[in-house]
Amino acid sequence: MADRHRRKGCRVYLSTVASPVTAAPAGPRRRRLALVSGNVVALGAVSLITDVSAEMVTAVLPLYLVLGLHVSPLAYGVIDGVHTGATAVLRLAGGFVADRTRARKPVAGFGYALSAAAKLGLLLAGRSVPAITAVVAVDRLGKGVRTAPRDALITASSPPEALGRAFGVHRAMDATGAFLGPLVALAVLAASGESYDAVFVSSFCVAVLALVVLVLFVRERPAGAPDTVAPPGAPKVTAAEAFGLLRAAPVRRLAAAAVLLGLATIGDGFVYLMLQRREDLGLVWFPLLAVGTSLAYLLLAAPLGALADRVGRLPVVLGGYAALGLVYCLPFGPLGGWPLLVLTLALHGLFYAATDGVLVALAGPVLPARLRTTGIALIQTGQALAYLASSVLFGLAWQVWGPRTAGLAAALGVAVVVAATPALLRKRGSLR
């Protein structure tokens, strides 16, 4: 992810950290900016299919646990916390192994295979809550392993000036899978007489299809790619180099900003619970709130990625967090009914579209090519752990103060973070 803020807006200089990224192959500039590479599309297809599989399980898991197994709210909270935080555990390990072996595709493939196997693990876990918790952790560990190598492959497959568009297209395809997953799960439940096992088996089959697409269509080093991991014969990445990333001030500031932004984010489930309490939504409608967020996300991801290439990544990211602050406020305002649901879910999807891939694109110029996967994993790990902490703190605030005070406090926290992040990154002209 190289100098992407080339013209207007904010621009993070990496001159003190990263080597320059090789220019894209010759060809009309307009064509380079208009399209994304086939490798990005293939990775997007893998993510789309994988998200169909993952969201099939995610959509029915609360119903399966609470109504099917009658677990307590506390037990469900523990499982949900594992589902949220376990991705952070192996992100750094997966990123480092991918950089050291210079084999990002196999490492990503291992992560996808791990998550696929976990779908069958739900069948073997039966009605054991500890076993289900362990299986959910394995599924999320697979996601943690694959995320940084996948994003590094996207970076290696895209010209520097089009990274926002590349990540936007990928995240739009990813969100399409998240949108379709709950609908497929509901269809399987209807066709199988509400058999959760049928959902788990179907989810496994879909996950295997994603692995097949990865093996057949994703390339480790696309022809003409603007990024080179390392020249032949170059020494392997060492642990000392990986730990040394944080000694570079630009990397350190961006990692701190990622943690700060993570602290401003609470779990999606809390947003949906606030809407459910406000509108007294029935159980059947509750899973469809996530579908609404995913629909907005998939519609906005590519346009906002392209916008980030034009005006700068940081303004788009901060705009997404401003939308998130409104999401936390709206359930306690005067608006109600369908207008409240539509506006809140649209802003929630806008938040993800403006921040998910764009934040990774923002990190690219700060990271040297041979440590790019590790660096992406470092930033994502910091944000994921901060996100986990913020969700726990928000749950505590909800219990002590009630949802209204907790929601408004979260919105205030977002405002503070949006104001503080540019000040954190704007040092010695590193942002323009």
From TrEMBL:
The keyword Hydrolase does not apply. The lineage of its organism: Bacteria, Bacillati, Actinomycetota, Actinomycetes, Micromonosporales. Residues 39-428 form the Major facilitator superfamily (MFS) profile domain. This is MFS transporter. SUPFAM superfamilies: MFS general substrate transporter (SSF103473). GO terms for molecular function: transmembrane transporter activity. The keyword Transmembrane applies. It is found in: Cell membrane. Keywords: Membrane, Transmembrane, Transmembrane helix. InterPro entries: MFS (IPR011701), MFS_dom (IPR020846), MFS_trans_sf (IPR036259). It is a multi-pass membrane protein. It comes from Dactylosporangium aurantiacum. Pfam families: MFS_1.
